[in-house]
């Protein structure tokens, strides 16, 4: 599709020589001077556009050319309008020409010229003038323009108010509200464009107006909406479409609750709507309104009594109810069925919006919404329509005292469990969660236990939704479920693999003849392993932190470790773990932190064997282990048994170097009486002995087959830890000193089996010598290796006794007095 | 409101670095958002245009990486369709949505819907509260028209040399970035106008 030809065209356009460019300009000017502008002119203008747009640096046109192109904006042939607008958008307006927003001829603007003006607007004032002009032309329009000459007015206004709602004055808002009401509610209900009900022989005089039809072919019984069809359309029916297309945005911008609607208004409106009247619209367009009326119009409150803003709200309300009714019809074409879905979403969102503004509408809207929910809740193909309904329930359910349980069961239950692979639903559902986090946490207690289900979105399509989970994960962390959440995060790649297997097993036949030699699909279907997979696929937290046979599960999924989805998922886990720990640590008590330490130690060897995955996870664990222990040093004494068990296992030195180093460091640093009074001499001695044994082992023999030499950092950390422990229990000092001097002797001989790099060996030996000489003076060793708290957390500037300025002053006065 | 519509490459391009995307068509709607931000207000018009171009380049790059990750994950084999098989190409196209955080690159959060048709991507950047169902069907419709009227499945470069057709198409189906609720009759009427334009 993308060819060399296209690439070279772009290159040519960028690298065109100045002289050639000028020649081209003058040729174009000549062409534009001619009377008849034909194909050649179109092609040349197109080429000019390519030259200008191919580079991000602006090229200026010679003024003569620019003026000529500008004059094409009002050309009768649309090609020239389009091209001139496109060309001028890629360059700058001629100096002196900017800001022509107050000209009278703006009312004759075609859509493309208007686009140019929009793109060149330099300030809010420009846009305000443009708005004013457009609205003026809307008010006083001539009816002889082509079918939709004014239809572009609404889209332009919509773009302006997207970025700068203040450009419309209150009068403008009122005017447009009135117009919108007319177009939405009172558009003609007969087909436009000369459609007739007569047959071949009927002449113009016998042409009767044909009513518009619904999408299933029935005759329309109520006012015109976007879901009505006809052979041709009248101008106001077009405006009906354009009005509805911008309606939600209009309401959000000018009708939001914060824009000043007080409770007094609400009370008035409540009174009005309670007095239901069956009067039809006796406003501007009363003669058009027929006597055929559906349920919607009949239950409306009288239109005339309300000011324009409130009228628009009421009419929008009616429009939406009618759309919801119309969406139940069976459309003949697929594009119309899709449109019905989109209309449902839009209608529910608009209803939500108007109900926010006027709470009395909630009681009128809820029966309809509830019925809609009942109709659609069992059909998963309407999942994306059910999300705005959930939003409505969340916003107004409490007020209407409606039970929302079934809604949440869908949103947190069925949707993630069954539609995790629908990109758009994932995006919209996660957005819904993000926007409503606070209310959900209040109103849906089940939210924090639904993470196994919600994480399915992440497991399936990590790159697309990881951003959303970065925002959502903190809200899913609670003290009660933290441990289970940690296990779930660590096993996300397994969940990813399982979901792939699940999808495949529903697509492929049970006995797959092709086979591919895969073990995992068979394992997935094997009843004896079913429980493992079912645990991963569970929907709610609370049934257990993890399973016993994790290692079996990992073995079964061994061949999935190079599946792209699994790999992508594994890459996001470290980030999520950081977020998890950052959220957990501030509020956690020691009990939880101890439990988490145990999980970290246990799981460090129990991870799915994806390349680099274990290493990354170990890195995360190490840094957070450090944080835990620095915050609560007594944790080390608490968990000393487990930590020692970990530190005493020689295999950990080789397979989990990062964590091992940190565990040893933590033991050396925090296993002291100053950190926790329960630390006994016996404990220190047993720790010492365990570490000593490991150190002996690794420095006296060749590494086991398949393993590299132990990292130098491990050796030095062990040595430092031993020295620290010895400094707290002085009878251990001789043992350490002996070892260190032996080490020095051994390594004098040159290379050793357990260290391949000479420089590393030198560093290790140097460290050994430093520690040895330090330990020769036990008191000094103790204050260096186990410094008292006021040394490690200095407050020099805060402590009056040691504040630097004070000391300097004292010294100065001492020296001066002499 | 749709902020922009892009057509760009999602396959490796030899002249560009890995992960870069060549923009074949871009159309920004509405006034430049820079005129409302304090930071960008002092920029000259040329600088503003530069910022705009860089912004859409960022979007194209992000969509390109999203598409390639998605295709990698689903292990899709890209079929080769020939001109005449537009409907098939569209059916096989993959689609998704990228969340563009506030500031990266637009000042507010945006949703970038994409449709990947073999080596090209069609992207619609719209405000997140926009009706994404409607945006999706609009995007598909636009892509279908582009593929047909610009013969994009072939080796030609009409998308570059006939960009005015895309402009005209957008002015009907997505005027000034406005998504329209068009039932098949309204759509037909607009498409007739578009076809009339293309025929001249």
Head-to-tail CA distance between termini of chain B? 30 Å
The helix-strand sequence of chain B is: EEHHEEEHHHH
Strand content of chain B: 15-25%
Radius of gyration from the alpha-carbon trace of chain A, in angstroms: 38 Å
Instruction: Supply the helix-strand structural class of chain A.
Output: mainly alpha
Helices and strands in order:
The complex is a heterodimer of chains A (818) and B (200).
Chain A: H1 4-15, H2 18-33, H3 39-53, H4 63-71, H5 78-89, H6 111-120, H7 124-139, H8 153-163, H9 170-185, H10 235-254, H11 263-274, H12 295-298, H13 308-326, H14 334-357, H15 361-376, H16 383-396, H17 405-418, H18 423-435, H19 437-443, H20 451-460, H21 462-476, H22 482-490, H23 492-507, H24 520-525, H25 527-536, H26 550-556, H27 564-587, H28 590-603, H29 613-631, H30 634-638, H31 640-648, H32 650-655, H33 657-670, H34 681-700, H35 712-728, H36 733-748, H37 758-775, H38 778-785, H39 789-792, H40 804-817
Helix pairs in contact in A: 1-3, 2-3, 2-4, 3-5, 4-5, 5-6, 8-10, 9-10, 9-13, 10-14, 13-14, 14-15, 14-16, 15-16, 16-17, 16-18, 17-20, 18-21, 20-21, 20-23, 21-27, 22-27, 22-28, 23-27, 27-29, 29-33, 31-33, 31-34, 33-35, 34-35, 35-37, 35-38, 36-37
Chain B: E1 2-9, E2 23-28, H1 45-74, H2 86-91, E3 94-100, E4 110-117, E5 120-126, H3 132-149, H4 158-161, H5 163-173, H6 184-199
Antiparallel strand pairs in B: 1-2, 1-5, 3-4, 4-5
Helix pairs in contact in B: 3-5, 5-6
């Amino acid at each position: 599709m993308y060819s060399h030809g296209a690439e070279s065209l772009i290159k040519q356009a960028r690298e065109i020589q100045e002289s050639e460019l000028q020649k081209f300009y003058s040729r174009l000017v000549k062409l534009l001077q001619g009377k008849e502008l034909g194909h050649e002119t179109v092609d040349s203008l197109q080429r000019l556009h390519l030259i200008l747009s191919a580079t991000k640096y602006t090229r200026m046109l010679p003024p003569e050319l620019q003026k000529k192109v500008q004059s094409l904006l009002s050309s009768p042939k649309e090609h020239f309008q389009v091209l001139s607008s496109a060309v001028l958008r890629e360059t700058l307006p001629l100096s002196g020409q900017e800001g022509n927003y107050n000209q009278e001829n703006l009312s004759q603007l075609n859509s493309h010229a208007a686009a140019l003006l929009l793109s060149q607007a330099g300030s809010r004032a420009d846009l305000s003038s443009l708005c004013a002009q457009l609205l003026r032309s809307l008010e006083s329009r001539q009816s002889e323009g082509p079918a939709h000459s004014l239809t572009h007015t609404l889209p332009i206004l919509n773009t302006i108010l997207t970025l700068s709602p203040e450009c419309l004055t209150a009068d403008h808002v009122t005017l447009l509200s009135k117009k919108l009401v007319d177009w939405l509610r009172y558009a003609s209900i007969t087909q436009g464009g000369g459609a007739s009900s007569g047959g071949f022989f009927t002449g113009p005089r016998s042409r009767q107006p044909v009513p518009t039809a619904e999408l299933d072919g029935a005759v329309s019984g109520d006012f015109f909406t976007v879901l009505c069809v006809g052979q041709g359309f009248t101008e106001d029916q077009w405006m009906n479409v354009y009005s509805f297309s911008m309606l939600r945005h209009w309401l959000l911008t000018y009708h939001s609750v914060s824009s000043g609607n007080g409770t007094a208004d609400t009370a008035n409106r409540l009174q009005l709507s309670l007095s239901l009247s069956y009067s039809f619209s006796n406003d501007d367009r009363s003669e058009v309104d027929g006597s055929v009326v559906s349920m919607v119009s009949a239950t409306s409150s009288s239109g005339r009594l309300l000011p324009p803003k409130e009228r628009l709200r009421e009419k929008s309300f009616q429009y939406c109810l009618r759309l919801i009714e119309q969406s139940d019809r069976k459309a003949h074409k697929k594009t119309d069925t899709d449109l019905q879905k989109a209309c449902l979403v839009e209608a529910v969102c608009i209803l939500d919006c108007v109900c926010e503004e006027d709470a009395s509408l909630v009681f009128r809207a809820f029966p309809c919404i509830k019925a809609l929910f009942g109709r659609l809740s069992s059909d998963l193909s309407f999942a994306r329509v059910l999300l705005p309904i959930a939003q409505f329930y969340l916003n107004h359910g409490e007020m209407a005292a409606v039970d929302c349980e079934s809604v949440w069961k869908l949103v947190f239950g069925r949707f993630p469990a069954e539609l995790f692979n629908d990109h758009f639903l994932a995006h919209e559902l996660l957005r819904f969660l993000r926007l409503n986090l606070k209310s959900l946490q209040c109103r849906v207690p089940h939210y924090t236990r639904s993470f196994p289900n919600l994480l399915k979105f992440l497991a399936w399509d990590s790159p697309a939704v990881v951003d959303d989970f970065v925002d959502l994960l903190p809200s899913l962390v609670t003290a009660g479920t933290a441990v289970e959440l940690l296990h779930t995060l660590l096993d996300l790649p397994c969940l990813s693999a399982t979901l792939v297997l699940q999808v495949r097993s529903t697509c492929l036949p049970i006995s797959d003849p092709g086979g591919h030699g895969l073990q995992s699909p068979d394992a997935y279907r094997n009843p004896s392993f079913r429980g493992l997979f079912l645990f991963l696929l569970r929907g709610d937290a609370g049934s257990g932190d993890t399973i016993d046979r994790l290692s079996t599960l990992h073995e079964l999924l061994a061949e999935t470790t190079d599946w792209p989805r699994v790999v992508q998922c594994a890459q996001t886990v470290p980030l999520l773990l950081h977020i998890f720990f950052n959220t957990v640590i501030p509020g956690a008590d020691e009990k939880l932190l101890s439990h988490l330490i145990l999980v970290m130690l246990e799981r460090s060897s129990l991870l799915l064997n994806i390349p680099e995955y274990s290493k990354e996870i170990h890195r995360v664990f190490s840094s957070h282990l450090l944080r835990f222990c620095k915050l609560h040093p007594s944790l080390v004494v608490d968990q000393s048994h487990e930590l020692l068990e970990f530190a005493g296992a020689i295999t950990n030195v080789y397979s989990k170097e990062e964590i091992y180093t940190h565990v040893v460091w933590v033991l050396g640093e925090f296993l002291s009486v100053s950190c926790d009074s329960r630390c006994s001499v016996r404990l220190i001695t047993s720790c010492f002995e365990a570490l000593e044994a490991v150190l002996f082992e690794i420095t006296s023999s060749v590494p086991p087959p398949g393993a590299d030499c132990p990292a130098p950092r491990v050796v030095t950390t062990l040595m430092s830890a031993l020295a620290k422990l010895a400094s707290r229990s002085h009878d251990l000092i001789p043992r350490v000193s002996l070892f260190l001097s032996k080490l020095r002797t051994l390594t004098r001989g040159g290379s050793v089996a357990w260290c391949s790099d000479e420089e590393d060996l030198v560093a290790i030996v140097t460290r050994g010598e430093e520690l040895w000489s330090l330990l020769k003076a036990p008191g000094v060793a103790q204050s260096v290796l186990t410094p008292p708290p006021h040394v490690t957390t200095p407050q020099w500037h805060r402590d009056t006794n040691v504040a630097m300025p004070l000391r300097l002053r004292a010294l100065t006065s001492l020296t001066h007095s002499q | 409101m749709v902020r922009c519509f892009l057509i760009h490459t999602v396959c490796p391009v030899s002249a560009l670095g890995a992960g870069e995307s060549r923009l074949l068509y871009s159309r920004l709607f509405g006034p430049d958002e820079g005129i409302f931000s304090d930071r960008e207000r002092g920029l000259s018009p040329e600088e503003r245009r530069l910022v705009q171009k860089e912004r859409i380049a960022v979007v194209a790059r992000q969509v390109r990486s999203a598409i390639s990750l998605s295709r990698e994950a689903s292990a899709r084999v890209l079929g080769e369709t020939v001109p005449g098989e537009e409907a098939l190409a569209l059916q096989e196209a993959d689609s998704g949505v990228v969340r563009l955080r506030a500031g990266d690159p637009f000042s507010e959060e945006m949703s970038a819907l994409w449709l990947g048709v073999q080596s090209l991507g069609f992207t619609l950047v719209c405000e997140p509260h926009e009706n994404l169902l409607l945006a999706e069907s609009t995007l598909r419709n636009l892509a279908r028209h582009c593929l047909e009227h610009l013969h994009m499945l072939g080796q030609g470069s009409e998308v570059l040399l006939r960009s005015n057709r895309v402009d005209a198409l957008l002015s009907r189906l997505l005027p000034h970035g406005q998504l329209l609720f068009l039932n098949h009759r309204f759509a037909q009427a607009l498409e007739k106008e578009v076809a009339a334009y293309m025929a001249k």
